[in-house]
Amino acid sequence: MKQKQLLDIGVDPDDIDFALELVQKAREKGLNKKKIHRQLQLAISKPDANFTNPYFGVLAKKVFKDRAFKERKQPAPWEIWGEDLPEGAVKQMENACRLPISWRGALMADAHQGYGLPIGGVLATEGAVIPYAVGVDIACRVKMTVFDSPAQDVDDNKDFLIKTLEKDTLFGIGKAFDRSHDHPVLQEDWSFSKVTKHVKPRAIRQLGSSGSGNHFVEFGELTLTHGALGLESGSYLAVLSHSGSRGAGSAVANHYSKLAMKLRPNLPKELQHLAWLSLDSEEGQEYWQAMELMGKYAAANHHIIHKKICKSLGAKPLLQIENHHNFAWKEMHDGKEVIVHRKGATPAGEGDIGIIPGSMVNSCYVVRGKGNESSLLSAPHGAGRVMSRRQAKRSFNWTDVNQVIKSKNVTLLSAGLDEAPSVYKDIDMVMRHSENLVEILACFQPRIVKMAKDGERPED
Fold first, then answer.
1. Is the pLDDT of residue 14 over 70?
2. What is the pLDDT of residues 296-347, one digit of tens each?
3. DSSP structure string for 318-342
4. What does the alpha-carbon distance between residue 417 and residue 435 come to, in Å, rounded to a whole number?
C-alpha cells in the first residue's frame, strides 16, 4: 500500500511508517491486499474493537491511546466583553478552553452561538489550527472606499448610485459571472491540494461577486467629527462591502473540518466541531496554505467590486480601508508564538485601522485598535445577531420592516427578511462594551443597500 492510501483510510501521518511495516509483515504471512485493506481500516476506524487483531492489533492500541481525549486540567483562561451574552455562546467558549491545545481566549460583545467556536470568539492555540474556529466563510472581510465627493451625493445622484450597485455587484449562492474577471490571485498555486485544485474553476467564475446572508454592498455617508485617517473633518460619500471567499472558501472549510473530525473521532460530542489539525502535520500545513489562499481570494473579490464601482463613478478614492475576520494568525503573545483564531472578531492591535458594521440601517464605525492584550488584540466584527434566521422569519414581515427602513432614510434594493435590522444587537451598545479595545474615528451611515434576494440560503 502507498502512503496516500493509508492517509485515505485515516492513518495518522505520524504512524505511516509503522503502518507500512505492519502491512509488509501481513503480506509475508499470506494476507491478500483486499483483506489487508479491510483489517487495517477496522483497526483505524474502530481501534477499541480490534486490540486482538493478529496483524494490526498493536496499531489499533496505539491509535486508541493517541486519540483518547485528555482535556486540560484547568481550562485555558479567557475573558468576556459585554453583558447578558447568549448562554450557548458562553458555553461554546468554555468548551473551547477545555482543549489540550488551547492557551487563552476572549469573547467579544457581539457574540452569538455558532459551530464549535462561537461567533465573536477568539481562541489562541499552541501548534494547531481548528478549521471550524476559523469558520466556513474563510477570510470574510469588510472594505470601504471613501470618495472625494460630499455625502449629499447619496441624495443628489441616488438613481445613478442605485444603477451602479445593480450593475457592478452580483449576489447569491452559486451565482457566477458569464465573463470572468482577472486578478493576480488566479496566478497563485491552486494545485497544492485536491480541494483547492477542484474549486479553482468555480472560484474563477465567482471572482468579484458577493455571497448571501449578511453580505452586502452599500453606499452611505462617512462622517469625521475631527481630522482622522488623513482626511479633513466633514462628511464624504463612501461605499462599504462585506463578503468572503464564496463557494471556494466553503469547500475548503468543509473538507478540512471533516478531515480534522475524522482524525479525532474520540472528542466528546460537544467538542467535535473543535477538532484540530497539528501544524506539524501535512494536513495542518495544507489547510494553512489553503486558508491563506482563500484570504487572498476574498480580498480579490472586494478589490474587483470597488474597482468596478470607482470606474462607474469616474472617481479616484481618497481612502480605502479593509479588515477581515474568520481567520487564524500566527502571533506572539507573552513571548510565545500561538495561533490566534478570530471567528467573527477582528484584529485590534495598537494602531490597527478596522471597520465594525451595524445593520442595514444602523451606524458602522471606523476604529483604531488600542492593543489590549487581554483580548488577544481583538475587537468585535459587527453588531451580532440576537435571534436565529428561522426565528426572524417567524417574527417579522416586510410591511413592518420596510417602515423601519424608510424611517431611517435608507433605500433597500434587496435583502432577506432574516437580515431585518431588529435581528441585530444595538451597535452602540457593542461599541460601549469595546471602549478599551478600540477608539472610534468615524461613523458611516448606510443609505443605499444591496444584499442577496429574499429566500437565498445564507452563506455568511
1. yes
2. 999 999 999 999 999 999 998 999 999 999 999 999 999 999 999 999 999 9
3. EEEEEEE-SEEEEEEETTEEEEEEE
4. 31
246-263 helix and 282-313 helix, angle to the nearest 10 degrees = 170
- The pTM of this model reads 0.86
On the 0-12 / 13-18 / 19+ scale of CB atoms within 10 A, 421 is: middle
Alpha carbon distance 174, 197 (integer Å): 18
Rounded Cα gap, residues 112 and 130, in angstroms: 19
State the pLDDT at residue 235.
96
Looking at the chain, how many residues does it have? 460
pLDDT tens-place string over residues 51-92: 899 999 999 888 887 777 888 999 999 999 999 999 999 999
Q: How far apart are CA 364 and CA 219, in angstroms?
A: 12
Residue 132 carries which side chain, given as an amino acid letter? Y
Considering the domain 141-246+296-321+346-451, what is its CATH architecture? Answer: Alpha-Beta Complex (3.90)
The whole-number average pLDDT for the span 416-432 is 96
Instruction: Output the nine-digit C-alpha cell for 431.
Output: 461599541
Please name which of 77, 209, 244, 224 lies closest in space to residue 151, comparing C-alpha atoms: 224
**SS3 assignment, position 123:** strand
DSSP 344: S
Question: Cα(404)–Cα(414) distance, rounded to whole angstroms?
Answer: 15
Map out the domains of the chain as residue ranges.
3-67, 141-246+296-321+346-451
75: DSSP letter? P
Q: Tell me how far apart the alpha carbons of residues 359 and 382 are, in angstroms, rounded to a whole number.
A: 8
C-alpha cell at 21: 511495516
